[in-house]
Design goal:
By secondary structure, the chain is α/β, with parallel strands linked by helices. The chain has helices at 19-26, 63-73, 97-104, 122-129, 148-159, 171-174, 207-225, 227-230, 240-246, 273-283, 294-304, 307-315, 350-356, 378-391, 412-420; strands at residues 2-7, 31-36, 49-50, 60-61, 83-94, 108-112, 133-138, 192-193, 196-197, 251-252, 261-262, 264-267, 320-327, 330-338, 361-369, 394-395, 398-399, 402-408, 424-433, 436-446. Bound molecules: 6-chloroguanine.
Length: 452
Amino acid sequence: MRIDVVTIFPAYLAPLDLSLVGKARRDGRLDLRVHDLRAWTTDRHRTVDDTPFGGGAGMVMRPDVWGRALDDVLPAAGTPGRHVLVVPTPGGERLTQARVQDLAAADQLVIACGRYEGIDARVAEHYAATGREVLELSLGDYVLNGGEAAALVLVEAVARLLPGVLGNPASLVEESHAAGLLEYPVYTKPPVWAGLAVPEVLTSGHHGQVGRWRRDQALARTATRRPDLLAALDPAALDRADRAVLAPHGWYVPAGAPAPVPVRVRPARDDDAAALAELAAATFPLACPPHMPAADVAAFVADHLTTEHMAAYLADDARYLLHVADAEGELVGYTLTVLPRAADEPPAAADVAAAVTARPAAELSKCYLLPPYQGTGLAAALVETAAAAAAATTVAGEPVAVLWLGTNRANRRAQRSYARQGFTVVGTRRFRVGGSLEEDVVMARPLTTGQE
Ligand code: 6GU
């Protein structure tokens, strides 16, 4: 590959004689030429800049000087091969590994390093208009004094992808950004340093477990440091184990979605009431057994799940806890937890709760998800949040110690899911849906408070 760098500071590019890039040049894999822009000036002072039209601070690089330089360095329009004019500028497209890979496949890069306030805008316009590929690139959201540092970055990033430049091309496969994820942490000898031991799995000799651990670390790091990269992942690249790692970081892969989605489980707010009612009306029928008359289902929704009901639950936070799964503003799941009444109040579901325990028990009355989110791990996150909130409440000075729920006997999927979340079957109950009297399985799990 050939790379030409045009700059008023050729000495700035001296490091490109060193290390892998220097070796690639000596080996003939990279034909790198650095040009002094002032060679194309025509005046005694070798002037490359002038004051900006329209006024303002600083100086702008003259298009006539750049035009003579680039006409010499770029091949004529229409020359076979891919010749790219790269203009580093903080106003350019953000440089990514994907773009680096793309540029590594070109025949020639001509990097035009601007200084001062930049190069007269007609330069990029002219070379694009005459059929050249022109690419304005930025390293990131900060300002450098000129394009030279960016040229160093680009040459190194491109050169290491050229065939034969890296000693071990396998290291290109797993490195950060190659798979759309940040790289896992790496360790070497000694096995204990500064009191810190290398993670045990890495010395175990289990290649499968090492691979899984590294993948988990890469996913977790990406979730915390670069959530923007997760949002761009293809779900086809995420297996079940990957999804299980992402869920506790608040990322879920709903069925049919083009990418993982960040979902926040949070207490419901008063202004969620209408959206909650809509979600409840959409999800409740899906959990009813098929033999249940539609009219009974509709009656239940009208009697328990309207905006007014939700507003009433929200207003009575001594009795009800509502949590929602908020997917970037869309409610995709919710729980309703009913706190126990004090001993001197008429017992609500005391028949069931008493069967479970003598201690205060809260009822997980509702836990529903939109179908695409079922099986994603989001139900567990909702239940954990509801359980933690219930455990943090007290009734007549006693902490709520049990979370229980009733779920339709026919809904085996729900029962399996609750069993995975620590619930065991403790009994049955009758549950009225409109005119239908249904048999529920009652399940319960103990709650631990933060202090225990
Ligand atoms: Cl490519 N040039 C300059 N001058 N500043 C930058 C940059 C480029 N990328 C980030 N900041």
